[in-house]
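Sample intake sheet
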Amino acid sequence: MDVYHFELRAFPHNLSRFNLSLGELRSTLLEPWSRDRVFECGERSWDPRRAKLTVLQGPRLDPGELTMGRGWRLAQRRGRDVTAEVLAEAGAAVGSGDVAAAETAQAARTGAGGPGGSSGPPRGGAPSEAVGSAAAAAPDLAADSLGLELLTAIGAGQLPLGRVWALARERSPGSAASVSLALAERAVASLLRSGLVVLLRREDAGGELSEVGGDEVDGVLRAGESWGADAAALRRA
C-alpha cells in the first residue's frame, strides 16, 4: 500500500516526514498549508508563501532506510511527485469549506491500493484505476496549457517568474497562493525539460540577468525570492 512522504524547505531549514497515511498528510500539512497562513510543523513555523513543499507518493520506507539522510533520496527514487495534485485538491476543499471533499478526491486518485482507498469501484461503477488516472492527469494538462500561454507571453523577450505566477493565479481565482505557485513551477519545469526555454537569474541587485546552469535550476525554482518582480525570468531557448 502506498503512503505519502513530504519535504518542507525554507532556506536554511528543511524538514522531511515519511510514511504518512492520507489522513495524517491532510491534518499535518495540507489543511494548514492550503489556508496560506503561517503554521507549525516539526517545532518550527513555516510560511507557505516562502517555503517550498514537495509531496511524494510511493511505497513505505523501512526504519533502516531512513538513517544517514537516505530517506528522501529513496522516496524520490521509488515514488512520484504528487505535490500539484494534493495541493489542488486540498485548496479546493478549503476554499469551499469542505475538507472531506479532499479526502474523497485523493482516495479516487490513488485508487484501491492507495491510502484511504476502498476495495471496490467508486459510486457509479467506474473503475477506480480510470478515476485515479484522470485525476492525476489533470495537473499535467493544466501545466501544459499554462506552458503554451507562457511561450506566447515570452515572445522574443523575457518573462519574469513573478509574471508567470500571476498568470497561474488568473487560472485559479480564489485558490491559495500555494496552489497557483505549484502550477507555475510545474509549467516552468516542463518547459525547461523540453528545452523550449532557459532560466535566467539576477545574481546581484541591479545586475544583469544571466543563464542558470542545469545543476542550479531546481534550487532557483525552489527559492521563494525567485518568484518576485524581477529576480528571475524565462527566455526562449
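Comment: The chain has two domains: 3-110, 129-236. Residues 96-103, 109-137 have pLDDT under 50 and may be disordered.
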